[in-house]
Every structure is written in structure tokens, then in C-alpha cells.
Amino acid sequence: MALILEVLDARTGEVRVRRWLEGGPLTLGRGYDNDIVIDDPYVDAHHARIGLDEGGAFVIEDLGSLNALVGPDGTRQTQVPARAGTVLRVGRTTLRFQDSDAPLPSALRDAGGRVGWFRVPGWLGTTWGQLTVTGTATGVFAWNTWLGTYEKSGASESVSTALGLLMLVTVWAGVWAVAGRVVVQRFRFLAHVAVTSSAAVAALIYATGSDWAAFVFPDNALGRPVAIVLGIALVTTLVAVQLGLASVMTRRRRWVAGLVTSGVLLAIAGVVRLAEERSFSDVAEFSGTLKPYPAALLPTGRVERLGADEADLKRRVDALVATHE
Q: Residue 185: left (phi > 0), alpha (psi -120 to 50), or beta?
């Protein structure tokens, strides 16, 4: 068995330096002439030394530094026995002594190009591939906006919409990229942008499909449940894939986190919709918009049928009024 010194990152707790301890003394500090250089403004140029005591055991002693050695209980000490499991602080840097036979956590599974539950194509992992996906998504939104406008300034409106979407995608991806830099030390900004852009296109397809379904089948009872299920699937997948890029969470935990996020958003949307439905209006509402759909395929009836239904409705209303007079 051998004793190993670990220097831990103050922010993440990750190991920055590992050093096997042998018989000779080692010095620690900010100075470049130390055996172990610690980049910490609260550490002296020559802060501490590790050596052997009279019994041949390792010990770490303070060299008259400003902040001394700080034990786990927060007390300042001038000398601390260095044994496996000993943890102390110099400045704002943590030192931990480990046995070479100490158990380690299981190795993480390498996704091997797999993000979430699918395998990412090799070209999508390149900078050009990610830029292509982002540019294509921006163009799709600009084209969709241009098709939906009837004003002379349709081109400028399309460009503004596309740029606004790109800005939102950039902010969202930037947050995930910073989180990934902190957690897994990898700043995958373009990858997050590509994933978010793909999700935005999927959301556009989802919204377009919902509009068409509401137009063709306005009284279909399955429309809303299907829309809710597809929305949950979209949000869950987006969160799970982003977590796959920015964390070391297991696949199951990523999907659970995505599902929980979808549930929270669904609950918020339900509360908002419930509040909107509380307001009464005598104006009939129809959420669908006119579509370029062949008239022959629309589920329509003859004008005579409309007149008959109107007459039947009038008789029922007259009867209802007569019963309450």
C-alpha cells in the first residue's frame, strides 16, 4: 500500500493533482519552486511541507503561512498526521490523502456517439454538421413565417422571426453549455445549439400538425390528448438529450428528469388554461385557421341540412323558453 495526495478543485471537488508520496519531503505552495504548485491566492508561496516523523509516518506541517492548515473541524493547526482518509484545507484548496488500494466508483459507460437513446451520426458531431443543422432550422422558421404572412414586409418579418428564434436558441444552449463546462468540463455550445434547433423544428412541425388536425377534425375528442402526449414526448426528449451532453447522469435519470420537467410544464399550462376558461364570452371561438385544403375532402354537409338543423334548434329553444314562462 502507498499513500497518495490529491489536490481537489475548490468549486467542483474534482481532483486536479495526484501525487504519490515517497520518503523524501515535498513542499506545497504558490511558488513555482515547490514540488506541488497550488494556484490559490489564499495559499502562501511556501505554505506546507510533507515529510516523515520520527516513527516513519507521513506528516504535513505548516511553514509559518498566513492561513495555516485547517482541519475538517475548521481549527487551524500547524502539524497534521497524513493518513489515508485525512482531509484538510490550505487556503481555499482541499487536500485529501488516499490509500492506493482505496475502492473506486464504477467506470462510466462511454456513449460512443449515442446521446439520449439514439446514435448521433458522425457528421453531426462536427462543427460544420452542427452549423448546418442550426442554419437549416433558422431557414425553416423564416420560410414558415414568410408563408404565413400576407403583408408587403413579409421578407423582413421572416428574417426578424428567424433571428429572434436564433437568439433564444443561443441563450438556451449557452446555459446548457455553461452547465456542461462546470459538470463535465466540456463546453459543447454548438452541439447544444444544434439539439435545441432540432427541437424547435420538431415543435414547429408539432404545432403545424395540430393546426391542421384542428381544421380538418374540429370536433375530434382525441385531438387534445394526442397533442398533450406529443408535447410531453418532445419536452422529455429535449431535456434528456441536453442532459446527455452536459452531465454524467445515467440514461434512466436523464429521462426521469425530462419527464418531471414535462409534468411541471403541463401542470403550469393546465392552470393557465383553467384560468382562461373561467372568463365567460358569448362569442363562439374556433382555434383553427383556414388551410389550403381540398373542399371535396372536408367533412361538410348540404345547405338544406343546415336549414333543417337550424329549424330544429329553433323549436327546441322555443320549447325551452315556453317551459320557463
A: left
Spatial distance between the Cα atoms of 299 and 291, rounded to a whole number of angstroms = 14
For residue 93, report the phi and psi dihedrals to the nearest 5 degrees. -115, 135
pTM exceeds 0.85, yes or no:
no
Question: Contact 82/50 with Cβ under 8 angstroms?
Answer: yes
Partners of 15 in beta bridges: 8
Among the residue ranges 36-45, 154-163, 226-235, 255-264, the one predicted with the least confidence is 154-163
d(CA 138, CA 134): 6
Query: Long-range contacts for 67-71 (Cβ within 8 Å, ≥24 apart)?
Result: 67/42, 67/43, 67/91
Asked whether 98 and 20 are in contact (CB, 8 A), the reply is: no
Looking at residue 311, its pLDDT comes to 84
Q: Quick one: pLDDT band at residue 37, thresholds 50, 70, 90?
A: very high
Q: Judge contact between 165 and 197, C-beta under 8 A.
A: no
Q: Which CATH architecture best describes the domain 3-99?
A: Sandwich (2.60)
Q: Is the pLDDT of residue 232 over 60?
A: yes
Q: Which residues contact 12 (CB under 8 A, 6 or more apart)?
A: 182, 183
Cβ atoms of 177 and 192 within 8 Å: the answer is: yes
Smallest Cα–Cα separation from 176: which of 101, 102, 244, 270? Answer: 244
Q: Per the structure block, which three cell numbers stand in for 164?
A: 429572434
For residue 220, which amino acid is it?
A: N
- The whole-chain average pLDDT of the chain stands at 82
Residues of the chain with pLDDT > 70, as a percent, come to 82
Nearest to 82 by CA among 50, 55, 56: 50
Annotated domain spans of the chain:
3-99, 114-276
CA R_g for the chain: 33
What amino acid is encoded at 62 in this protein? Answer: D
Closest Cα partner for 198 from 188, 187, 210, 206? 206
Q: Phi, psi at residue 287, to the nearest 5°? A: -75, -20
Task: Tell me the C-alpha to C-alpha distance, in Å, between residue 317 and each of 308, 309, 313.
Answer: 14, 12, 6
